[in-house]
Structures are given as structure tokens and as C-alpha cells.
Amino acid sequence: MRVQFPTTRPRRLRASKIIRDAVAETQIDAGDFIYPLFVKPGGEREPIGPMPGIYRWPVGRELINHVEEALSLGINKFILFGVLPDELKNPEGTGGYDPEGVVPRAIRLIKEIFGDRVLVFADVCLCEYTDHGHCGVVKEKRDRWYVDNDETIKLYAKEAVVYAEAGADFVAPSGMMDGQVREIRRALDAHGFEEVGIMAYSAKYASAFYGPFRVAAASAPKFGDRRTYQMDPRNAYEALKEVAMDLEEGADIVMVKPALAYLDVIRLVKQHFPWVPLAAYNVSGEYSLVKAAATAGYVDERTITLEILTAIKRAGADLILTYHALEAAKWIKEGLPF
């Protein structure tokens, strides 16, 4: 096909907003978003310093009011992260799989009030509940520490069952332990939860973009880092291996995390597994950088946020986990600025 000027003038399709909207290849709406919520045992809501507009929510009326606000904007999917004070943490992260823990309580409350009007995802990991901040059981061997993969995935399975019993629609293992999806799927099925889905953090990179989240969830490692179990940022094709393994083990939805710096990985995964629902996590550091730049007057927050979310979807994401969800939903209702 020969495409030549002056017969072909691409600007004809950019001449007005109504034309641009008519021919736009990518559309975003509130239904694309999964809204992360940090939940804590009690007290008042707490602002999270490096994440303006994001709070730790006590399990109670304030949380319910916030979910109602989200629903009014068309956001009906939520992922829950637990936050515990240091005195309730221990080496095994037992708070993560306590049936009366903060996340099961929040799931029960949200489901009791909203039922099938909401889709509840529960993050499955131990970093929020361990006193050392790592994602599993830490052991030592020859004077070196390591996270025991096989012991950790058994605790993930316990955690997933507890969340399923509380009413979660999906569990979302994020620890990047080998075999975690298989262990969780077997445990869910053995307890009669065949209908509970798994959204696997399949390609989760050892990224510097997680800093504000670790403040929000009080989950920063007390020593070392997570590079021995999260993916090397230099690798893209390795993500295909991780995704393939998770699908083989029973994942229903797969995820790439972070999103913005890994748009190539999102595209790569979607091209190789086009039939699989793909989520991408627009993570805390991406959110906080936009907020800081907007506060300084360097960028227009509305325009740049919607451009970023559009790029993530254009790369191939079907679902976007984003802290911008409420603001973005409001801005989309007002009309995209493109």
C-alpha cells in the first residue's frame, strides 16, 4: 500500500476532538481500573506522606464510605493490602493468614455491604506481616540469609484460603516464589474454592519504583533486598517464562509490575499470550513522581496521568492497578484532554 502526500493527509483525522475521539485506537474508562486499598486494624484514616491522596483505612465506616465513593465513579474492583503495627509482626508473618486478621475482616465487611457489586482481590504475600520485611520465611545457611521458597509457598496457600473463606473473589500472590500459583491453586481447590480466581504477579521486577508503597504498608526489608526472588530489570524475555509457568500452574490473570517503565514487557506478554487477561500495576513510585511534579508545577497532572494510563492500556494491559483510579475516573467523565 502506497501512502503518499497530498492524497493522504493524516491531519484530516486530527482536525477536531470529535474526529480524534471517533478514530482513537485506545479507550480507557473506570472499568479498567483495580483500586489498591491499604487497610489497618482500627483508629482513624492515616494519610500516607509520599502518596498524597492515599490513606491507610481502618476496617469500618470510613472504608465503606470510600468504597461507595469509588463505586459512584464506576470503579468496582479493589485490591486489599494489610498494614500492621510493628508489635503485631513476627518472623513467620502470622498476621497474614490469621482468619481474624485485618484483610479477612475488610473482605467480610466489604462483601457484606456491597456483595456482587464489587470484585475483591486480596494480595497474598508476607512482607506486610513479617518483622524483617521480606516476603517469606527467612533462614540462614553458611552465614548467609535466604528466603525459604518451599516453606513460604505453604504459608501463601494458608493465606489464600483464609482470604477465600472471607469472601475474596481473587487472590493475588505477589511474592515471586517459584511454584506459588500451583500451591495456592491446590489449596483453594482442596478447600472447595474452585471458583476463586488467581491473579498472579507473574513478572514482578526488583524495582526502585516501590519505595512509597513500602512506606504505606510498612514493608521495607530490614536487611538486604529482594533481588534474589524478584526479577532483574535488565530482562524482558524472562517474563515470558514466568508467565508461562504461572499459567501452567493455574493462574487466571497474569500481571506485569511496574507498568510505566516496563511497557515493552506488557506488549511482549500480550503478543505471546493474547488470550490471557493481562493486568499491569501502575505502582506507587510512578504515582508519587507525578504528584510531586504536579505540585511543583512542572506538569499538568490530569493530562499526564490520563496519558500514562492510556499508554499502559495501549501497550496491552486489560486491567490497570492504579492509585490514580478515583481522580482518573472523575477526569474521564469530564472528557479526555487529547
Automatic annotation (TrEMBL):
GO terms for biological process: protoporphyrinogen IX biosynthetic process. 5-aminolevulinate 2 binds at residues 284, 323. GO terms for molecular function: porphobilinogen synthase activity; zinc ion binding. Keywords: Heme biosynthesis, Lyase, Magnesium, Metal-binding, Porphyrin biosynthesis, Zinc. Disulfide bonds join 125-135. 5-aminolevulinate 1 binds at residues 214, 226. Pathway: Porphyrin-containing compound metabolism; protoporphyrin-IX biosynthesis; coproporphyrinogen-III from 5-aminolevulinate: step 1/4. Pfam families: ALAD (PF00490). The keyword Nucleotidyltransferase does not apply. It comes from the Archaea. One of its GO terms (cellular component) is cytosol. Mg(2+) binds at residue 242. Homooctamer. PANTHER family: DELTA-AMINOLEVULINIC ACID DEHYDRATASE. This is Delta-aminolevulinic acid dehydratase. It comes from Pyrobaculum calidifontis (strain DSM 21063 / JCM 11548 / VA1).
